């Protein structure tokens, strides 16, 4: 969970116990519907946000963990929508071009968001790779467009954009497609959710405690 | 709000309208207790998290906005507890040493968290500077120790650590002191809250739309 010192790990352990209890309060017997790996990821999100409501908001579709582990084993890149998400993920092949000058110019020229411009320019990396969207609904909608119109096939779309405009709808649309995905129901989502889920799967790939 | 293209700004505008409505539903007539600047910052947090509950969780103590603006005008550094917070803030004098080799060694040697080690080693920058804590309660407790025991006087403590262990208590303790601070009630907090508040004050310092 990021802690590397004894004090840090003591806090993480104690927190994890409380987190498990809070999740049980939210899910009750529905807790049995989740695999150990899925529950480990949900615990990470509740730990990162102190918001137990996430236990009932996170959805796993089309074998996202297995597909993501395959991609990680094959050293595929992780593409992120924003720099904050990149900064939080512990992996050495992460791409994020949102702040590049070229992205800004491309966005301006075509009247699209920087998030869309960035995703569109990275479609070759996204094909067979892992795409993590923690902020921009328009970035997720562009991934869906690439899937539908350009046959781009990510191994995982971790799509948790946040906000009251387009975020819910973009995630609902994602879940109608045959893409391995992890997403949230409704407007909630964001960087800590994206990062804690992704770091959880990376921990799994190294056989570390999730 | 980070948007720089027309599409991006349209989404931001529409979102802001919804955010204002949601905040009103939470605060009702208590909305009049806040200054325009404070309400602008609260709107940013609700926009960044899609979680209107934050409207009643954010507290401003001892003139935090004015003191922070003074520090920004004097080009004082912003110190952050973790890299993700640093990655999200738009300012050119930001310091974060949590991932430095020296910090790790110092933490190991003295049996403290990396967060504490990092804050302790930056006390000269924190004195008269702006300290933003979006993750680690132990980092906030160390800032409080530096205030009490070593007379370190930050111009703003933006203290929104998250979690079920020590986070609430560390923020309550902060609010008992005569330090300009912005903090949250209870276990909730985290990177998006820290970043949206800090970028909001930076926007104010440039007379940009908050």
TrEMBL record, chains A, B:
GO molecular function: precorrin-8X methylmutase activity
Pathway listed: Cofactor biosynthesis; adenosylcobalamin biosynthesis
Coiled-coil regions listed: none
GO biological process: cobalamin biosynthetic process
Domain Cobalamin biosynthesis precorrin-8X methylmutase CobH/CbiC as annotated: residue spans: 11-203
Keyword Isomerase: yes
Keywords associated with the record: Cobalamin biosynthesis, Isomerase
NCBIfam families referenced in this protein's UniProt entry, alphabetically: PRK06264.1
Family listed: Belongs to the CobH/CbiC family.
Name this protein carries in UniProt: Precorrin-8X methylmutase CbiC/CobH
